[in-house]
């Protein structure tokens, strides 16, 4: 019996604002999303604000050393509490000066003692599920969400092997890359290497061996593995003293974050932040021990931005335009039972998650 073909998603999944709105209220609100790096919150009272799934949130470090996340809204009359990043002894609302402890508990407010029966212990900022995952802060708006280790089995242990100095890492550079496409188009492009040899000559000849590339599901993670290019062909010198130094590996955490480890145990990250149905911002992060400047990492980041990233921008924006063509009919995915670089089995998995994310639309 012939196995039925598996076709790509209908164009509406990438172009329909109603589907994007359903994702924003549902999928993106009940999955683990990257907020920032723990090194941004070194001291008690350090905070940063960010947007996720249409909500304004902020992370703040308590005096007990715990990083907490709250909805960025005062419980009095809904004014936003903080903007940007900074440090504070207590959180003070700019509107009426209601003051909150770093734990979110209401501390004081002008004239609240005059209100009979007012119990400030009953007032607290609304908290958000938060996990620090190898120094990276993730949040989930679903208070009942399973822990990240359940979502992404073995990832923490594997990354600890590939990045043995993870606890000393700090960002050296974050690059903001706007793309005129749906976030799923960009994520799909990242999650297959079927196009690499054709479109990424520097990556395919100076960083990895495409013929060894494979991607496999691991819970809600897509695990990329490949050997690095022959050392004489590498575009940068690598430190070979650590295990896995001559490998490339990537852990894409559904739906919008990826840890990448380049040969030489160089950690870099991708983070997608959806803007609307036609736009996404991709944050590329690069990390070194204690955030020390590194000529090698700087050059690698410049090379990556000028080659692979730039090449991908043209690809995904062309796809987004094509998805709006009345001539597009979703074709069959190339799903090779043997997997490998020329198979789209990873896209098949992604699109299953994408359908589930907006069911029953």
Chart the SSEs and their pairings.
Layout: H1 12-15, H2 17-25, E1 33-37, E2 46-52, E3 55-61, E4 67-71, E5 85-87, E6 91-92, E7 99-100, E8 106-108, E9 127-133, E10 136-140, H3 148-151, H4 155-162, E11 169-179, H5 183-190, H6 196-199, H7 201-206, E12 214-218, E13 221-227, E14 247-253, E15 257-262, E16 266-276, E17 279-289, H8 295-323, H9 345-358
Antiparallel strand pairs: 1-10, 2-3, 2-5, 3-4, 4-9, 6-7, 7-8, 9-10, 11-17, 12-13, 13-14, 14-15, 15-16, 16-17
Helix pairs in contact: 5-8
What does this structure look like?
The protein is an alpha+beta fold. The protein has two domains: 33-140, Rieske Iron-sulfur Protein (3-layer Sandwich), CATH 2.102.10.10; 148-358, Naphthalene 1,2-dioxygenase Alpha Subunit, Chain A, domain 1 (Alpha-Beta Complex), CATH 3.90.380.10. It is 24% helix and 29% strand. The protein contains nine helices and 17 strands. The strands form three sheets. Strands 1-10-9-4-3-2-5 form a seven-stranded antiparallel beta sheet, with no helix packed on it. It has a seven-stranded antiparallel beta sheet with strand order 11-17-16-15-14-13-12, with helices on both faces. Strands 6-7-8 form a three-stranded antiparallel beta sheet, with no helix packed on it. It is globular. The two termini are 32 Å apart. The relative contact order is 0.15.
